[in-house]
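Allow me, if you will, to draw on your knowledge of protein folds for a short while. I have a record of one protein: its chain in single-letter code and its fold written as discrete structure tokens. Kindly check, if you would, that the fold set down in the tokens agrees with what the sequence suggests. Thank you for your consideration; the sequence and its tokens are set out here:
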Amino acid sequence: MSRIIVRAASVALACVTALVLTPVGNAGATSLTYFTVRAAWGWQNTGVHIRGGQEYSVSYQRGSWTVDGARFSRVDADGYSNRTDASIVHGCKIIANRPYGTLIAKRGGGAFPVGKFGKYTAGYSGWLSLRINDGDFCLSDNAGSILVSIQVYDKKQSSGGGNGGNKVG
């Protein structure tokens, strides 16, 4: 009986890909989430909801991935060098002016690049999704994953909106 419980607990822990931490004593001031982004999956909802006007950041922690496990080495969240990027078959990028393998994000609207780090002010509310810069029809040969942290800073929503997900200072 105890082996069944231990096995069930192990399976449950293995299925969890996001961990949310809120500092004790200063609850609501900021939240920190760790999320694993898989190269072979399309858009992946991080479970992080960001309100319009809030600042947030996405930071690469560790891991590597590739857009073609048989032909190209693994890279980090900044993606491939310009030279390698130019040698990869064209037509699969989601953001055309960023290298294959770059970590990208969206919050209900269009995609924007993140790379190893990005800090943003949300222009509107929405759920944060992440993925590799490689189109849905090109994911079958991808491999690997990266771990990122997402920090949301609790700031009173300003009446002026934000900059729609653009990097700030």
